[in-house]
Amino acid sequence: MEHARSGQEPEFLIISSIHPSAQDLQMLGMLQGDASHSTRVTGHPILHSSEYLFLFSGPAAYNSHFPRHAGVIIAFDENEPQSIINESLYNIAEHPSIDGIPILAFLVNYEDGIIHSIEHDYLRDASLEESLYQRVVVPLPIDPSCLILLCSDSRVQPPVFPEGMPLAIQTLGAHIPRYDKNHGECTQFDAFFKEWFSICSPKQILIIKHGGFVVECPHCSAAEASINANAISERFLSEVISAITSDASRFEDELRDDPKDGALALAKATEANIRSYPAIEVARRNGIDLDELIFIIAMDTLTGRILEIG
To answer: Rounded to whole angstroms, how far apart are CA atoms 126 and 204?
Structure first.
């Protein structure tokens, strides 16, 4: 884990819903390395830690290994129901890796770049909330036709495309699990895909693998950690990395020790898992060519350069 964490010292864990994920970083002035990332499915609450393994539990456990823990930031759209806010805050606070860390919750008007603190009964830091207000800028608009899957790594941030900011799912290794109808995280993903395919066309899903392709630096933290998955003892992190290792192994010809190869295998596993969702299969039956929908992209960790598609 020590090598996987090299070059990072994030101060925040930021939890964003899929639609404004890239906007949250920009709106709060988060620079490269400032924040580890996690995600919730738009329009749905964060579930209990055991049910939100890839979206929240794994990233939260990973973030706990860094020395600086200023706060956990979660943003809600100003029109979201109070029930979603309450359930999400409760389940964040229940995560063992969040103990003793302030939870900074905001209601956001993304169009105008206006945020308001949410009152809650968990640990807060009013002075830190105030300092975040001073950072706020109006974010760029969202391009709803583009969805990216990006690592939780604090060193990588969503790219800006000519049409605007993409929708973003940020997890360890940019990985999402294979569909399981009995798992709440998967049913939320499927609900998102179903809703997304109903609102606009054409669409693009970009799975971003990252590493030291231009400047020498550590590769994807999840790919690094998966080399020695058995050495990870923390419960949620161990479960995520073990699942990542197992999924990626389906796309590796032999046992490898190069995280660059691991990052590619992990991206291929994520692509295969995306195809397992019922909403994606419905889209395929309705005429969408999945080979033209989903692409794997390489991004250099430090420069943020998009290097290749394929």
So the answer is: 40
Angle formed by the axes of helices 259-274 and 235-249, nearest 10° = 90
pLDDT tens, residue by residue, 242-296: 898 889 888 876 445 565 666 788 899 999 999 999 999 999 999 999 999 999 9
- Residues 123-133 have pLDDT tens digits of 999 999 999 99
pTM assigned to the model: 0.91
Rounded to whole angstroms, how far apart are CA atoms 73 and 107?
Answer: 11
> What span, in angstroms and rounded, lies between the C-alpha atoms of 260 and 24?
29
Nearest of 47, 5, 24, 30 to residue 232 by alpha carbon: 5
**Looking at residues 213-224, what average pLDDT do you find?**
64
Contacts of 137 (CB under 8 A, 6+ apart): 26, 27, 29, 113
d(CA 277, CA 176) in angstroms, rounded, equals 11
Residue 46, pLDDT score: 98
SS3 115: strand
Assess whether the previous peptide bond of 202 is cis (omega < 30° from 0).
yes
Contact 84, 44 (CB under 8 A): yes
Mean pLDDT value across residues 167-177: 95
Following DSSP, what letter does each residue of 117-179 receive, concatenated?
A: EPP-SS---HHHHHHHHTT--PPPPEEEEEEEEEE--TT--PPPBTTBEEEEEEEGGG--PPP
Sign of the torsion angle spanned by Cα atoms 45, 48, 50, 51: negative
Q: Which of 257, 268, 223 is nearest to 241 (CA)?
A: 223
